[in-house]
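Fold this complex.
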Amino acid sequence: MNIFRLAGDMTHLMSVLVLLLKIHTIKSCAGISLKTQELYALVFAARYLDIFTHYYSLYNTVMKLIFLGSSFSILWYMKRHKVVRRSYDKDQDTFRHHFLVLPCLVLALLINEKFTFKEVMWTFSIYLEAVAILPQLVLLQRTRNVDNLTGQYVFLLGAYRGLYIINWIYRYFAEPTYSTHWITWISGLLQTLLYADFFYYYINSVKNNVRLQLPA
Amino acid sequence: SSPEPTKDEL
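Structure:
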Protein backbone atom coordinates (compact mmCIF):
# COMPACT_ATOMS: atom_id res chain seq x y z
CA MET A 1 0.00 0.00 0.00
CA ASN A 2 1.58 3.27 -1.09
CA ILE A 3 0.60 6.81 -0.10
CA PHE A 4 -1.08 7.56 -3.47
CA ARG A 5 -3.28 4.49 -3.26
CA LEU A 6 -4.25 5.30 0.34
CA ALA A 7 -4.94 8.95 -0.53
CA GLY A 8 -7.02 7.77 -3.51
CA ASP A 9 -9.06 5.42 -1.35
CA MET A 10 -9.56 8.14 1.25
CA THR A 11 -10.82 10.70 -1.29
CA HIS A 12 -13.11 8.01 -2.69
CA LEU A 13 -14.40 7.29 0.81
CA MET A 14 -14.81 11.01 1.54
CA SER A 15 -16.80 11.52 -1.67
CA VAL A 16 -19.33 8.91 -0.59
CA LEU A 17 -19.45 10.23 2.98
CA VAL A 18 -19.97 13.83 1.77
CA LEU A 19 -22.89 12.62 -0.30
CA LEU A 20 -24.43 10.56 2.51
CA LEU A 21 -23.92 13.45 4.94
CA LYS A 22 -25.66 15.85 2.58
CA ILE A 23 -28.58 13.51 2.09
CA HIS A 24 -28.86 12.55 5.76
CA THR A 25 -28.54 16.01 7.34
CA ILE A 26 -30.20 18.29 4.78
CA LYS A 27 -32.68 15.55 3.82
CA SER A 28 -32.17 16.54 0.20
CA CYS A 29 -30.62 14.90 -2.83
CA ALA A 30 -31.09 17.88 -5.16
CA GLY A 31 -28.46 17.89 -7.88
CA ILE A 32 -27.54 14.24 -7.35
CA SER A 33 -28.06 11.87 -10.27
CA LEU A 34 -29.89 8.69 -9.29
CA LYS A 35 -28.69 7.20 -12.59
CA THR A 36 -25.06 7.61 -11.59
CA GLN A 37 -25.77 6.22 -8.11
CA GLU A 38 -27.46 3.15 -9.62
CA LEU A 39 -24.47 2.59 -11.85
CA TYR A 40 -22.05 2.84 -8.92
CA ALA A 41 -24.07 0.33 -6.88
CA LEU A 42 -23.90 -2.02 -9.88
CA VAL A 43 -20.16 -1.36 -10.24
CA PHE A 44 -19.49 -2.33 -6.61
CA ALA A 45 -21.82 -5.35 -6.69
CA ALA A 46 -20.14 -6.71 -9.83
CA ARG A 47 -16.59 -6.00 -8.69
CA TYR A 48 -16.79 -7.26 -5.13
CA LEU A 49 -18.12 -10.73 -5.93
CA ASP A 50 -14.91 -12.03 -4.37
CA ILE A 51 -15.63 -10.42 -1.01
CA PHE A 52 -16.46 -13.68 0.76
CA THR A 53 -14.33 -16.01 -1.37
CA HIS A 54 -10.96 -14.27 -1.44
CA TYR A 55 -9.32 -12.54 1.51
CA TYR A 56 -6.74 -9.82 0.79
CA SER A 57 -6.62 -7.79 4.01
CA LEU A 58 -8.92 -6.50 6.72
CA TYR A 59 -8.58 -3.03 5.16
CA ASN A 60 -9.70 -4.38 1.79
CA THR A 61 -12.73 -6.23 3.19
CA VAL A 62 -13.87 -3.34 5.40
CA MET A 63 -13.57 -0.83 2.56
CA LYS A 64 -15.53 -3.09 0.22
CA LEU A 65 -18.30 -3.43 2.80
CA ILE A 66 -18.38 0.35 3.29
CA PHE A 67 -18.61 1.02 -0.45
CA LEU A 68 -21.34 -1.59 -0.93
CA GLY A 69 -23.28 -0.42 2.13
CA SER A 70 -23.00 3.28 1.36
CA SER A 71 -23.92 2.99 -2.32
CA PHE A 72 -27.04 0.95 -1.57
CA SER A 73 -27.94 3.32 1.34
CA ILE A 74 -27.80 6.26 -1.07
CA LEU A 75 -30.11 4.37 -3.45
CA TRP A 76 -32.48 3.64 -0.60
CA TYR A 77 -32.57 7.31 0.46
CA MET A 78 -33.18 8.56 -3.08
CA LYS A 79 -35.83 5.97 -3.96
CA ARG A 80 -37.58 5.17 -0.67
CA HIS A 81 -37.02 7.87 1.96
CA LYS A 82 -40.26 9.83 2.10
CA VAL A 83 -38.63 13.28 2.44
CA VAL A 84 -35.40 12.83 0.48
CA ARG A 85 -36.99 11.29 -2.59
CA ARG A 86 -39.14 14.39 -3.13
CA SER A 87 -36.02 16.54 -3.70
CA TYR A 88 -34.80 14.32 -6.53
CA ASP A 89 -34.52 16.21 -9.87
CA LYS A 90 -36.29 13.52 -11.83
CA ASP A 91 -37.10 15.66 -14.86
CA GLN A 92 -33.50 16.83 -15.23
CA ASP A 93 -31.86 13.46 -14.62
CA THR A 94 -32.80 11.97 -17.98
CA PHE A 95 -29.57 10.28 -19.08
CA ARG A 96 -30.38 6.85 -20.56
CA HIS A 97 -27.99 5.01 -18.28
CA HIS A 98 -29.14 1.55 -19.35
CA PHE A 99 -27.45 2.24 -22.65
CA LEU A 100 -24.13 2.38 -20.84
CA VAL A 101 -24.58 -1.00 -19.12
CA LEU A 102 -25.02 -3.18 -22.21
CA PRO A 103 -21.98 -1.93 -24.20
CA CYS A 104 -19.82 -2.31 -21.07
CA LEU A 105 -21.03 -5.88 -20.62
CA VAL A 106 -20.39 -6.73 -24.28
CA LEU A 107 -16.94 -5.13 -24.10
CA ALA A 108 -16.17 -7.12 -20.94
CA LEU A 109 -17.19 -10.35 -22.71
CA LEU A 110 -14.90 -9.50 -25.62
CA ILE A 111 -11.93 -7.88 -23.90
CA ASN A 112 -10.90 -9.46 -20.59
CA GLU A 113 -7.88 -11.12 -19.04
CA LYS A 114 -9.62 -14.44 -18.45
CA PHE A 115 -12.98 -15.71 -19.67
CA THR A 116 -14.54 -16.73 -16.37
CA PHE A 117 -17.72 -15.40 -14.74
CA LYS A 118 -15.95 -13.56 -11.94
CA GLU A 119 -13.30 -12.12 -14.24
CA VAL A 120 -15.83 -10.90 -16.81
CA MET A 121 -17.95 -9.30 -14.07
CA TRP A 122 -14.84 -7.66 -12.63
CA THR A 123 -13.87 -6.30 -16.07
CA PHE A 124 -17.46 -5.14 -16.64
CA SER A 125 -17.29 -3.17 -13.38
CA ILE A 126 -14.05 -1.50 -14.50
CA TYR A 127 -15.59 -0.41 -17.82
CA LEU A 128 -18.82 0.70 -16.20
CA GLU A 129 -17.05 2.72 -13.51
CA ALA A 130 -15.21 4.64 -16.24
CA VAL A 131 -18.48 6.05 -17.60
CA ALA A 132 -20.76 5.93 -14.53
CA ILE A 133 -20.20 9.63 -13.76
CA LEU A 134 -21.68 10.75 -17.10
CA PRO A 135 -25.32 11.12 -15.94
CA GLN A 136 -24.07 13.17 -12.97
CA LEU A 137 -21.98 15.46 -15.19
CA VAL A 138 -24.93 15.97 -17.52
CA LEU A 139 -27.19 16.79 -14.57
CA LEU A 140 -24.63 19.28 -13.21
CA GLN A 141 -24.48 20.99 -16.56
CA ARG A 142 -28.27 21.23 -16.72
CA THR A 143 -28.73 22.63 -13.22
CA ARG A 144 -25.90 25.14 -13.88
CA ASN A 145 -25.74 26.42 -10.31
CA VAL A 146 -24.08 23.65 -8.36
CA ASP A 147 -24.35 23.57 -4.58
CA ASN A 148 -21.11 23.21 -2.63
CA LEU A 149 -21.59 19.63 -1.45
CA THR A 150 -22.44 18.30 -4.89
CA GLY A 151 -19.40 20.10 -6.31
CA GLN A 152 -17.19 18.63 -3.58
CA TYR A 153 -18.62 15.16 -4.20
CA VAL A 154 -17.68 15.21 -7.89
CA PHE A 155 -14.32 16.84 -7.16
CA LEU A 156 -13.42 14.13 -4.62
CA LEU A 157 -14.42 11.39 -7.09
CA GLY A 158 -12.18 12.91 -9.74
CA ALA A 159 -9.32 13.29 -7.27
CA TYR A 160 -9.66 9.60 -6.35
CA ARG A 161 -9.21 8.59 -9.98
CA GLY A 162 -6.26 10.93 -10.50
CA LEU A 163 -4.51 9.57 -7.40
CA TYR A 164 -5.06 5.99 -8.58
CA ILE A 165 -3.21 6.77 -11.80
CA ILE A 166 -0.22 8.06 -9.81
CA ASN A 167 -0.53 4.89 -7.69
CA TRP A 168 -0.31 2.70 -10.84
CA ILE A 169 2.75 4.55 -12.09
CA TYR A 170 4.33 4.21 -8.66
CA ARG A 171 3.55 0.48 -8.43
CA TYR A 172 4.83 -0.13 -11.95
CA PHE A 173 8.28 1.13 -10.95
CA ALA A 174 8.35 0.20 -7.26
CA GLU A 175 6.90 -3.34 -7.24
CA PRO A 176 8.89 -6.02 -9.10
CA THR A 177 5.88 -8.39 -9.28
CA TYR A 178 3.50 -5.72 -10.57
CA SER A 179 2.67 -6.32 -14.21
CA THR A 180 0.95 -4.25 -16.90
CA HIS A 181 -2.81 -3.95 -16.57
CA TRP A 182 -4.05 -2.32 -19.73
CA ILE A 183 -7.74 -2.80 -18.97
CA THR A 184 -7.58 -0.99 -15.62
CA TRP A 185 -5.13 1.66 -16.80
CA ILE A 186 -6.92 2.69 -19.99
CA SER A 187 -10.34 2.67 -18.28
CA GLY A 188 -8.95 4.66 -15.35
CA LEU A 189 -7.33 7.17 -17.66
CA LEU A 190 -10.53 7.62 -19.67
CA GLN A 191 -12.50 8.04 -16.44
CA THR A 192 -10.12 10.73 -15.19
CA LEU A 193 -10.30 12.58 -18.52
CA LEU A 194 -14.09 12.79 -18.19
CA TYR A 195 -13.53 14.97 -15.12
CA ALA A 196 -11.06 17.34 -16.83
CA ASP A 197 -13.69 19.85 -17.92
CA PHE A 198 -15.42 19.79 -14.54
CA PHE A 199 -12.08 20.22 -12.75
CA TYR A 200 -11.31 23.31 -14.76
CA TYR A 201 -14.51 25.05 -13.69
CA TYR A 202 -14.39 23.74 -10.14
CA ILE A 203 -10.86 25.00 -9.48
CA ASN A 204 -11.72 28.37 -11.02
CA SER A 205 -14.76 28.70 -8.79
CA VAL A 206 -12.72 27.86 -5.67
CA LYS A 207 -9.96 30.28 -6.71
CA ASN A 208 -12.39 33.12 -7.34
CA ASN A 209 -14.45 32.13 -4.31
CA VAL A 210 -17.71 32.01 -6.27
CA ARG A 211 -20.41 29.43 -6.69
CA LEU A 212 -19.60 26.73 -9.25
CA GLN A 213 -21.35 27.37 -12.53
CA LEU A 214 -20.93 25.15 -15.54
CA PRO A 215 -21.41 26.43 -19.09
CA ALA A 216 -24.56 25.25 -20.85
CA SER B 1 -1.56 -19.76 -8.88
CA SER B 2 -0.39 -16.50 -10.41
CA PRO B 3 -0.67 -13.33 -8.36
CA GLU B 4 -3.40 -10.87 -9.30
CA PRO B 5 -1.90 -7.53 -8.32
CA THR B 6 -4.74 -5.22 -9.37
CA LYS B 7 -7.39 -7.23 -7.57
CA ASP B 8 -6.03 -5.94 -4.27
CA GLU B 9 -7.26 -2.50 -5.28
CA LEU B 10 -10.74 -1.20 -4.69
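The mean pLDDT of chain B is 67.
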